[in-house]
Amino acid sequence: MEDEFVQRFPWFVDHWTSLNGFTCVVAYDGSEPVGFAYGAPLTAGREWWREHIVNPPERCTTFGFSELMIRPAWRGKGLSAQLQTALIDNRPEGLAVLLVDPDHPKVQSLYESWGYSQVGFRQPFPDSPRFAVMVRTLR
Questions:
Q1: 95 phi and psi, to 5 degrees?
Q2: How far is residue 83 from each of residues 36, 38, 67, measured CA to CA in Å?
Q3: Cα(121)–Cα(112) distance, rounded to whole angstroms?
Q4: Tens of pLDDT along 51-100?
């Protein structure tokens, strides 16, 4: 937690929750929260993923999938897939986009198994990791 980028997580949460259409799903074991996923629609025409695609769709709305977290004791039980499905199923947008740290190939493979494809790399902040940009068609 000494990493300055990680310490800014509360800022990221505040940013995402302020966006129109912010959506969050939470998994519970009884009354105990064990995981969550959230995101929001991206502003039309300002989708940062477009720079990574040679022929991006002209009129395509995008859902930004920001975070997916499962508490350690509940990992490996299929909750990630359930949260991801609950978050993006029935979305009106045409695409979902996310960033994943390529230093975690198992996580990237998990997203690939859900239909996401890597289209490039992006380092959104000077002190952030260089993330793989992943896109999935929703409809």
A1: -135, 155
A2: 7, 9, 11
A3: 15
A4: 777 776 666 788 999 889 899 999 999 999 999 999 999 999 988 999 99
